[in-house]
Amino acid sequence: MAILLIRHGETPGNRDRIIQFPDTALSDRGLEQAARLGERMRSESIGEIWVSDHTRAHQTAQAVERTTGAPLSIIDDLGERSLGALRGTPYSELDFDPFAPGYTPPEGESWEVFHARVDRVWALIEARWLEAFAGRADAGHFAVVTHGLVLRSLFERRLLGEAGLAAHANADGQVAIANTAVSYIEPTGSAPGELEFRVDPLACIAHLDEETAPRANPNVGM
C-alpha cells in the first residue's frame, strides 16, 4: 500500500496561462482527465482521500470518490501557494517571474511561509499513514489530491533526495508534475518525521490518451 500524491486536472488557468483563484474550476478537458483518473483508481484499493479546499482539486477528488467509494476529507493546508493580488493576471502581462526565489507576491505567501505550510500538512499525512495504513494490507492506498507547487515542494525538498532529483529534475532542480499525474509513495519506518520514502512511479499519466494528455508547461498555472 502507498500514499498516492495526485495533481488536479486541467483548468482554464492552466490552459490560458493565468494565475488562478481558489474557486477556479476544471476545464472540459480537465473534467475528462479527472474521469479517466477515476477509472484508473477503480482498479486500485483506495482507503481514504484527502483533498485541497480549492475547487479544481475537489472536482478531481470527487471523480476518484465516485469510482472507489472512499471517504473524502477536505484539508485546507493542501491548497496551492497563494499569489495574492496577482491572481487573475495572465503570465504574459508580468515582466517578472512570480515564482522567483525570494519574491513574495502582494497579499500572498512567501516561499518560506508556503514551504512551512507544506511541511505542516505533510506531518499530518505521515501521522495519518502511521495511524490508519502502515502495516495493514487491507487498508488500501491513501490518496492525496493537491496542486503542482505543493507537490514540487514535497518532491524537491523531502521525498526524492539527491539521487532522485538527479534522475528526475530539470537543470533548475524542478520536477514536472502534469495534470492528474499520480505518484506512488511507499513509506518505511514507524515514527513521524523519521520515515523514508520510495517513489515509484513518479508523476504517471498512463490513464490519459493523446486527447487528454497535458499541454506544454505542466507546472504553470498551479
Please characterize this protein's 3D structure.
The protein is of the alpha/beta class and 222 residues long. Helix content is 34%, strand content 14%. The protein has a single domain, classed as Rossmann fold (3-Layer(aba) Sandwich). The chain has helices spanning 12-16, 28-42, 55-68, 111-132, 148-159, 161-168, and strands at 3-7, 46-51, 72-74, 141-146, 182-188, 196-199. Helix 2 packs parallel to helix 3. The protein is globular, with a radius of gyration of 17 Å. The mean pLDDT is 95.
Q: What are the defining features of this structure?
A:
Rossmann fold, 6-stranded mixed sheet, 6 helices
Structural class: alpha/beta
Share of residues in strands: 5-15%
- Low-confidence region ranges: none
CATH first level: Alpha Beta
- Alpha carbon gap, first and last residue: 28 Å
**Largest sheet, spatial ordering of strands:** 3-2-4-1-5-6
The name CATH uses for the topology is Rossmann fold
CATH homologous superfamily (4th level) name: Phosphoglycerate mutase-like
Can you write the helix and strand succession as a string?
Answer: EHHEHEHEHHEE
Radius of gyration, CA atoms, in whole angstroms: 17 Å
Tally the beta strands. Answer: 6
Question: What's the arrangement of secondary structure elements?
Answer:
Blueprint: E1 3-7, H1 12-16, H2 28-42, E2 46-51, H3 55-68, E3 72-74, H4 111-132, E4 141-146, H5 148-159, H6 161-168, E5 182-188, E6 196-199
Parallel strand pairs: 1-4, 2-3, 2-4
Antiparallel strand pairs: 1-5, 5-6
